[in-house]
């Protein structure tokens, strides 16, 4: 069974309901890129009338995590995945619909191959950039994922 945007959105409802109810939705997913959107609403705002940073973080993490899950599934190996660290910068108020994109699927392929070859845990740093409807960057997230083949 392949991972699709629809299946990821259903996964959110049952496994990450806070992300689902905040409006985080996967729009597209392929070999190299994942796109997730979230719309600024009353439910996910901060006191400054923009999107709460944690909601942006959920959407950004999903872009990277969905790619990692897809690549692990394609490898046929049982692997663990965990965010070891992350950082973010915010450059503009997040209002309206925010589009988060990670397009580093090729970096995940390299890390998974190396983990399978060596049997040792690997790390990969993936970036997700959030832009508003005018194409202006509002936030930039980096997630350090650790990958290890399960024995």
Written overview of the protein:
The structure is a single chain. The chain has 151 residues and is α+β, with helices and mostly antiparallel strands. The chain has one domain: Thiol Ester Dehydrase, Chain A (Roll). The protein has four helices and six strands, in the order ααββαββαββ. It has helices at 5-15, 17-22, 53-75, 105-118, and strands at 25-29, 34-39, 79-90, 97-102, 122-131, 137-149. It has a six-stranded antiparallel sheet with strand order 1-2-4-5-6-3. It is elongated and about 50 Å long. The mean pLDDT is 96.
Brief rundown of the structure:
The protein is α+β, with helices and mostly antiparallel strands and 151 residues long. It contains four helices and six strands.
Helix/strand layout:
Layout: H1 5-15, H2 17-22, E1 25-29, E2 34-39, H3 53-75, E3 79-90, E4 97-102, H4 105-118, E5 122-131, E6 137-149
Antiparallel strand pairs: 1-2, 2-4, 3-6, 4-5, 5-6
Helix pairs in contact: 3-4
- Corresponding CATH superfamily: Hotdog Thioesterase
Principal-axes geometry comes out as elongated
Residue runs with pLDDT of under 50 for 5 or more positions: none
What's the β-strand tally? 6
Highest-level CATH class: Alpha Beta
Largest sheet: 6 strands, antiparallel
**Compute the gyration radius: what is it?**
15 Å
Strand share of the residues?
25-35%
By secondary-structure content and strand pairing, the structural class works out as alpha+beta
Q: If helices are DSSP runs of H or I spanning 4 or more residues, what is the number of helices?
A: 4
Distance from first to last alpha carbon? 23 Å
CATH architecture: Roll
Give the overall pLDDT as a whole number.
96
- Kindly report the spatial arrangement of strands forming the biggest sheet: 1-2-4-5-6-3
- Would you list the SSEs in sequence order as H and E? HHEEHEEHEE
* Helical content band: 25-40%
CATH topology: Thiol Ester Dehydrase, Chain A
List the domain count as a whole number: 1
């Amino acid at each position: 069974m392949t991972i699709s945007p629809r299946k990821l959105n259903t996964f959110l409802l049952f496994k990450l309901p806070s992300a689902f109810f905040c409006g985080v939705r996967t729009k597209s997913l392929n070999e190299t890129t994942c796109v997730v959107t979230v719309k600024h609403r009353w439910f996910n705002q901060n006191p400054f009338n923009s999107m709460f940073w944690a909601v942006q973080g959920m959407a950004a993490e999903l872009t990277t995590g969905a790619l990692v899950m897809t690549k692990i599934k394609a490898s046929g190996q049982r692997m663990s995945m965990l965010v070891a660290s992350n950082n973010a910068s915010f450059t503009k108020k997040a209002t309206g619909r925010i589009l988060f994109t990670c397009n580093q699927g090729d970096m995940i392929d390299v890390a998974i191959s190396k983990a399978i070859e060596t049997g040792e845990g690997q790390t990969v740093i993936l970036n997700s950039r959030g832009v508003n409807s005018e194409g202006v960057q509002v936030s930039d997230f980096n997630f350090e994922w650790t990958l290890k083949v399960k024995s």
